[in-house]
Each structure stands twice: as structure tokens, then as C-alpha cells.
TrEMBL record:
Domain Glycoside hydrolase family 49 N-terminal: start-end pairs: 21-229
Superkingdom, taxonomy of origin: Eukaryota
GO MF annotation, one: hydrolase activity, hydrolyzing O-glycosyl compounds
Record-linked InterPro entries: B_solenoid_dext (IPR041402), Dextranase_N-ter (IPR035953), Glyco_hydro_49_C (IPR005192), Glyco_hydro_49_N_dom (IPR023226), IPU_b_solenoid (IPR041274), Pectin_lyas_fold (IPR012334), Pectin_lyase_fold/virulence (IPR011050)
Protein name: Glycoside hydrolase
Signal peptide: 1-19
Domain Glycoside hydrolase family 49 C-terminal: 494-601
Biological classification of the source: Eukaryota, Fungi, Dikarya, Ascomycota, Pezizomycotina
Keyword terms, alphabetized: Hydrolase, Signal
Length: 608
């Protein structure tokens, strides 16, 4: 940590500094990178270009020599400038069919991010390209409990980021750049409305009291990802006989290569909107070097017991249409099984397989983020320092935690289930979440399960918003039975449980939800619940949308559930402890009035 004197010297020396392109650094303390092909546009960028932030530039310094180095500031936008299209590269093939994006494109929403590697404390300098002069009372950093040291000078913001072996992931937000998401009616059945674009969807001339506030987010998000340097064991030797260094530009030949390791060095690579990284069976390691930007999606075909995806580059789905389906000419296809995942693979029967993921940033997934098939009972994921941005499309979820998986130090921007705990012996910790309107943040429903020994902790929700009960709101959720034949659930059907299955010994702890929040939980118990603990949760405030069937969006519930024969599931040892809403602790007496908590009275639920 730097002392006050050194801090003052540094800030005084760089107050007048300007951003010079490609002034980067790569030493033992700090590594930043740049792309000369950056484009500032709201249209699709060229295949060999990268979308660059129109509003922010970022520089980083790790010493008192008054040198600030450029850190390329990427940007992602809803639909990637293509519009709501069905056919790849055909901007005229528009549709009004839903893709999970409501008003985000119409209001001009964007998300910028920058990444760098560090091994010592750094200062991050944020400059507004629109001429806005940053003052000490014009910004906030989320999660707010990071309590980072900040200063302003010359109209720029300086943020001290102490070194941590777990890195740091945070949002920088400005008061003049916040957007109020309002619902179209005062009961939880409507979509958002907007008064920005008269030609856009859900336009209203002006807001009124019947349009409640459901969330406040930056119109132009800025995310900072500070990562520790990569462990040498996670960096392949590019001179190895079994390594392929991919040439920049159009990606080809990965389906026929005999290499085991595929390396993307700094640069821009693309598979096009009608292709993807369909890897040969010999490939079990993808390395995305810092400064690499790979447009495509990945499918492994290896039978190796160890699969790896490492490095601090970017894997971007920006060229694809929503639900792009390789079996359907990469056109939009509204089915579950065959559209692209950003990560996909098949696990051999009877083989214990581990997938190690460290460092990548995934941008703009066109559908579900990750699914593996085959014998997943013996498949686990070890995922660290993973980031997902641009999760605007519907069904852009988080990665699935297969049995024995460990996820830690994650940033998720999602528009579907975020932390998916469908299997036993799973640990998830230190996750920052910015959440769209679909599905809960933590999900263990959709089907009856036999799961146990799950720990989810240290979850910081910096933004969340739900516009209707139909979007399955909630911090913790177990959604009702999913019917693949209709791609839907029946939320009112309470006879879908399996009384022979159970979820047990699950702990959700240290969860913070900033701003307006959805309910603590909505649990359709599709199996017996035993020894479930929800501990140390803070919700800043609940929204006000209510009135429909007397169930508002902020209300938690856990109704009675039966199987098809009418036999009841049991809930035993369900504990909610140290649950705070604002500065009020929820007790048994205030469970409904402060905590908005409702459950079947036959369940064994304790509030303490």
C-alpha cells in the first residue's frame, strides 16, 4: 500500500496526463494491452476489429514514476449492432420475436470493460471522453463494500486497487449516467417502458405513478478487471511439438489439427457468423493470451481426463445471431438442444474428467453459456478468475457447476440463471453479479434433484431487476418443473415434486444485494429439503411492484408441493439467519412485513 505522501505526489504529477494509444507495459508488476483495430461505432465492427468504448478511457500505474499506461477499454452493446435478426450477416432479416432484450437496445445501453494483470498495488485512472469533469460526489464504485481509496484531479478519477491474489472486479458508475428502469404497470405482469426512442419498443411519452421503479443501472457500464499474473503451469509452451499457434484473422483448421494445445497470441481472430471453434479430438487445451480477442464459440471433442481453457484473453460470441444453431445454418432456431454454447463438450463414459478454466472473459453469448454432455456425473469444473460481459440476450446464463466443481473469483453479467447448482459437492465463492430480468441469481430447480453438500458464499449483487413474476425473480430460486417439449414451466402447478428425492446440507451465506432487489427466495420444492441454511444476507431495498394476485415481485414464497399422487414433500431444518433489509433485521415477527417472506406453515422454517 502506498502512503499518503506518495499518493499525493502521484496524483499531482499525472493530473494533466492524456491517453496515448498503445502506450502499454509488460513487466513483473503490471501488464496492459491495446488493439490498434479498435472501432467506436453502434454498427457491427469489422471481423478483424474490436469494439472500443465510446465514453471511457482507462490507464493504469503501479509505481510513483508518474507513468500511466493505456489499458484497452472494450465495449459490448445489445445485439452487437445487428438488430434483432434471424439470418447471419443479413441485417434485413429482422423479427419481432423475443430475444430477451426489451428496451436495452432502444435506450442505447452499453457495457465497457478493461482488464490488466498486476502483482502489486496499482492506481487506475478513468477519463470521460465526453468531456464530463469527474468530481468527488459524482461517482460510486460497486460493490460498495470494497471501500477503495479514490481521488479526483483534472476532471479524472483515480482509484487505488490493492493487490490481491484473488484479483479485483468492480463497476465504476457515474451519477449523470444512470438509467431508471420502470415497469409498464403497477402489477407484476408488464414489460419495461422507455421514453428515449419513440421508434423503439415500449415507448411512452412520459412516466407516471403507475410505472414503478424496478431498478437503476448505468446506461454505459464501466467494469474494471484486475487479475493476478498467470501461473506458469497455466501458460503453454508455444514451441512445443504438440502446440499450434493460430495465425491472426480468420480461424480455420482447428477441426483437423493434430495439435493438443491451441494458442491464441495477442491479436484479433474470428470464426465468422457461420462457423465456430469445432476442435479436433486431439485438442484439450485452449490458451487465450492477454490481448487476444477471439470471435467464436468452442466445442471440445477430446477424451482427455484434463481439459483446459486458460489465459486472460476474450472469447466473444458477437458475430452470432440469437440462438445461432449450427445444425440450422447458424440461423436463429428457437430450440434448447442444438444452438451454440460458448463452451461445449462431451464427457466419456466412466472417466473422471476435470475442466480447468482460468482467466478468460466471455463476451456476448448468443444463448446458454456452457453445457457438457455424456457422463457428467464424473465431470467437474475448476473455474477461477472468469468474467462474462454483454449478457443481454435471454438465456445467457452462468456456467453449470457439475459434481465436485469449484467456482471462485467470478464476474457475471447474465440474463438467466446465474449460479447453477444442480449437482452435489459444489463450492461457489466470491462472485460479483450484474443481473438482467430473467430467472433467479442462484438456481437449483427446473427438475427434482438428489443433491447435497453445496456451499455458495460471498456473492455481491451490484444490480438486479425483474419486471414480472413470469420472469422468475429472486436471489435464491428453485423454479418449477421444466417441460422441454413446451420450453416452459407451470408455476401454479404444485403437484410436480418427487418425494423420493432430496436436497440437503446446502448453505447460502454472505450475500449482498445493492439497490432495488427481488425477493430473497422463490422455492418450488421439487424434492424434500433438509438442512438448508440462508445466512448473513443484506438487501438494500425492495421494489414496489405488487398487486397481481397479492404477490409482488419482492415477495418470497415456498408453497406446499406434492407428487402426482398427492404425497407431500417435507421441509426440515430450513434456517434463515441474520437477514437484513436496509438497516432492519428480519425476525419471525417481521418475516412478512420487513422480509416479505411467506412459506407453507407445515414446513420446519426457523428465522433467527
Amino acid at each position: 500500500m502506498w502512503g499518503i505522501l506518495n499518493t499525493g505526489i502521484l496524483l499531482a504529477g499525472i493530473a494533466g496526463a492524456t491517453s496515448n494509444s498503445n502506450n502499454t507495459v509488460n513487466n513483473s508488476k503490471l501488464q496492459t494491452w491495446w488493439h490498434d483495430s479498435g472501432e467506436i461505432t453502434i454498427s457491427p465492427v469489422q471481423p478483424d476489429s474490436v469494439r472500443q468504448s465510446h465514453l471511457y478511457s482507462v490507464q493504469v500505474s503501479n509505481s510513483v514514476d508518474q507513468t500511466y499506461y493505456d489499458s484497452f477499454t472494450y465495449q459490448t452493446i445489445p445485439r452487437n449492432g445487428q438488430g434483432n435478426i434471424l439470418i447471419p450477416n443479413d441485417l434485413t432479416s429482422t423479427t419481432t420475436a423475443g430475444d430477451g432484450i426489451t428496451i436495452e437496445a432502444a435506450i442505447g445501453m452499453t457495457m465497457s470493460w478493461t482488464s490488466f494483470l498486476y502483482s502489486a498495488d496499482v492506481w487506475v485512472k478513468v477519463h470521460r471522453l465526453d468531456g464530463f469533469s469527474i468530481e468527488s460526489d459524482t461517482f460510486v464504485i460497486r460493490p460498495t463494500n470494497l471501500n477503495l481509496t479514490t481521488s479526483v484531479a483534472g476532471g479524472d478519477l483515480f482509484i487505488q486497487v490493492p493487490y490481491s491474489e484473488r484479483g479485483s472486479k468492480f463497476s465504476v458508475e457515474f451519477n449523470d449516467n444512470l438509467y431508471d428502469f420502470r415497469d409498464g404497470c403497477s402489477n407484476p405482469t408488464c414489460s419495461y417502458v422507455q421514453d428515449t426512442s419513440a421508434s423503439g419498443p415500449y415507448y411512452v411519452d412520459e412516466y407516471d405513478d403507475s410505472m414503478p421503479l424496478m431498478g437503476v443501472e448505468p446506461l454505459d457500464s464501466l467494469l474494471i478487471f484486475a487479475s493476478p499474473f498467470e501461473d506458469e503451469s497455466l501458460i503453454p509452451d508455444e514451441t512445443s511439438d504438440d502446440a499450434l499457434v493460430v495465425p491472426e484473422g480468420r480461424i480455420s483448421g482447428l477441426n483437423t489439427t493434430e495439435a493438443r494445445i491451441v494458442i491464441f497470441k495477442p491479436g484479433v481472430y474470428y470464426a465468422t457468423a457461420t462457423d465456430y471453434l469445432n476442435l479436433s479430438s486431439t485438442v484439450d487445451w485452449l490458451y487465450f493470451a492477454p490481448g487476444s480477442y477471439v470471435k467464436g464459440a468452442v466445442e471440445f471433442h477430446t477424451t482427455s481426463a484434463l481439459i483446459q481453457a486458460t489465459g486472460h484473453g476474450v472469447l466473444s460470441g458477437e458475430q452470432y445471431v440469437y440462438q445461432a444453431d449450427p445444425t440450422y445454418g447458424f440461423q436463429n432456431h428457437n430450440v434448447d438442444a442444438s444452438p451454440l454454447r460458448m463452451w461445449k463438450g462431451t464427457v466419456p463414459n466412466g472417466q473422471k474428467t476435470t475442466w480447468v478454466v482460468n482467466g478468460p472473459t466471455v463476451n456476448s453469448p448468443p444463448f446458454n453459456s456452457m453445457d457438457f454432455y455424456g457422463d457428467t456425473s464424473a465431470f467437474s469444473v475448476a473455474c477461477t478468475d472468469y468474467k462474462q460481459v454483454g449478457g443481454y440476450f435471454g438465456q445467457t446464463d452462468g456456467m453449470q457447476a457439475y459434481p465436485g466443481s469449484v467456482f471462485q473469483d467470478i464476474f457475471y453479467h447474465t440474463n438467466d440463471d446465474t449460479i447453477k447448482i444442480y449437482h452435489s459437492d459444489v463450492t461457489v465463492s466470491n462472485v460479483v453479479v450484474q443481473k438482467g430480468s430473467t430467472a433467479p441469481i442462484i438456481q437449483f430447480g427446473w427438475a427434482a434433484r438428489n443433491i447435497s453438500n453445496i456451499r455458495v458464499s460471498d456473492i455481491n449483487i451490484i444490480h438486479s431487476r425483474w419486471n414480472s413474476n413470469g420472469s422468475n425473480p429472486g436471489i435464491i430460486g428453485s423454479n418449477n418443473l421444466y417441460d422441454p417439449s413446451t420450453a416452459s414451466t407451470s408455476a401454479t402447478n404444485t403437484s410436480t415434486a418427487d418425494t423420493y428425492s432430496s436436497a440437503s446440507n446446502i448453505v447460502f451465506s454472505n450475500i449482498r444485494s445493492e439497490g432495488i432487489s427481488g425477493p430473497l427466495m422463490r422455492i418450488y420444492a421439487l424434492e424434500n429439503l433438509h438442512n438448508i441454511t440462508i445466512s448473513n444476507v443484506w438487501v438494500e431495498e425492495f421494489g414496489s411492484c405488487d398487486g397481481y394476485e397479492n404477490i409482488g415481485i419482492s415477495e418470497s414464497f415456498m408453497p406446499a408441493m406434492t407428487d402426482g399422487n398427492g404425497d407431500n414433500i417435507t421441509v426440515e431444518g430450513f434456517i434463515i439467519e441474520d437477514f437484513m433489509v436496509g438497516d432492519k433485521k428480519v425476525t419471525l415477527d417481521t418475516a412478512s412485513t420487513v422480509g416479505n417472506l411467506y412459506w407453507n406453515p407445515d414446513f420446519d422454517v426457523t428465522i433467527q
